[in-house]
Amino acid sequence: MSTIKEERANRLLNDPIFKETLDTLEEELKTTWYNSSITETEAREHCWLSLRLLARIRTHISSILETGEIARKIKEYHI
User: How many beta carbons lie within 10 A of that of residue 30, not counting itself?
Assistant: First the structure.
């Protein structure tokens, strides 16, 4: 049995608009980073931090779902 939190995480991870949004933001940040000039250190650092944040968002949502699945397995096998 899934919790509401897990169900929401699952819906987000499988939502095409959410996926497209994160993918588009990631591509735009990579493009900006790649096309920055040598003097735009601060802009590159901002892009790098933003990319790390996007990765953390994806990881956190995935971990909500995976933690629930692990908890169910532990309960199922009485570990």
Answer: 13
As averages over each run of 10 residues, the pLDDT of the chain (79 residues) reads 84 95 98 96 97 96 84 74
Dist CA 51 CA 19 (whole Å): 15
The answer to whether the CB of 7 falls within 8 A of the CB of 65 is no
What's the first-to-final CA gap in the chain, in angstroms? 18
Residues 6+ apart with CB under 8 A from 72: 1
CA dihedral for 11, 14, 15, 20, sign (positive or negative): positive
pLDDT in tens, 15-36: 999 999 999 999 999 999 999 9
